[in-house]
Amino acid sequence: MIAILGAGSMGRLWAAALPAGQVAFVPRPGQILEPVRYHFCPFEGQTRRVTVPWLQPGQSPDLLLVTTKAGDTLAALSNLLPRLPASTPVVLFQNGLGCQQQVADTWPNRPILAASTTEGANRPEANVTVHAGQGETWVGALNHPGEAQLIPVVQSLAHSYLTLHAEPDILSRLWQKLVINAGINAFTAILNCPNGDILQHPFYQQWIDPLCREISRLLKAAGQPEQPTDQLRARIEMVAHNTATNTSSMRADVLAGRSTEIDVINGYLVRFGQQHGIAAPVNQMLTERVKQLH
Ligand code: KPL
Questions:
Q1: Of 4, 92, 102, 155, which shows the fewest CB atoms inside 10 Å?
Q2: Contact 74, 98 (CB under 8 A)
């Protein structure tokens, strides 16, 4: 049994992609225990109905996928983990950086792993989940106990129809994704436009090079492969171009009146810079501007 903590778009995508009967959502305290029912629109093929039960008291999953928002993760796990065996592997699907290290530091003896995914899913209506973009998922260990669990975890997730890889350097993957999100998400939220539209906007054109210069210095300080400003900009723009009509997760959060993940994206880069004596005023400015939208 695979338990999923977080019944948002990503949690519902995995619940639909794994074999029926092998998945359950983890209820929040006090939650009504009616199964979760929704229509699932796969990337290709026909819409189908999915029913996912809740994990019952006393049931012990073989694996826990955590698909909560970064800001909710530590509190949700603090509630749940005391009730799970210390050997249950935990796979974190959060965006950005910061939250994963917090979890690994809080539970150093549990097998903690992280996933970085390019799968896209959204919920145009409460009971509809759309697999909007077909991608790939990389899973890697964040701590020593996680390393021993990497292959069994990947094998059990490989029963889904999604494409999965074991990643020996998951931190690098997370940094690479952070760079893309740091260069797209805040701009789309501030400018209130789809990903591709930022490219022509004077605000984006004014700040993208200074932003990439900051990110380039921060990557170096993080021990990541050095990437010059123009290469970073080219990568960001390629993704913005390939996802031109998408509403970014951050813009979607702002439009829905939810809090955004700015603190684990550009906000993380600001804090990382402070720890390493690197000024990050453009990341700071983007963080502040997005927070004003909350
Ligand atoms: O990951 C994304 C997000 O919206 O969070 C991008 C790559 C920007 C695609 O929309």
A1: 155
A2: no
Of residues 69, 177, 220, 291, which has the active-site annotation? 177
Is position 220 annotated as part of the catalytic site?
no
Q: Which residues pair with 131 in a beta bridge?
A: 121
pLDDT averaged per 10 residues in sequence order, the chain, 294 residues: 96 97 91 89 96 93 97 96 96 97 98 96 94 95 98 96 97 97 98 98 98 98 95 97 92 94 98 98 98 92
d(CA 270, CA 285): 10
Ligand 1 site, CB within 6 A:
180-181, 184-185, 195, 239, 243, 246, 248-249
Alpha carbon of 181 to ligand 1 centroid (Å): 6
Rounded distance between C-alpha atoms, residue 268 and residue 264, angstroms = 5
Residue count of the chain, please give it: 294
3-state SS, residue 51: strand
Q: Are residues 287 and 153 in the same domain?
A: no
**Pair (125, 206) in one structural domain:** no
Atom index in ligand 1 nearest the CA of residue 184 equals: 8
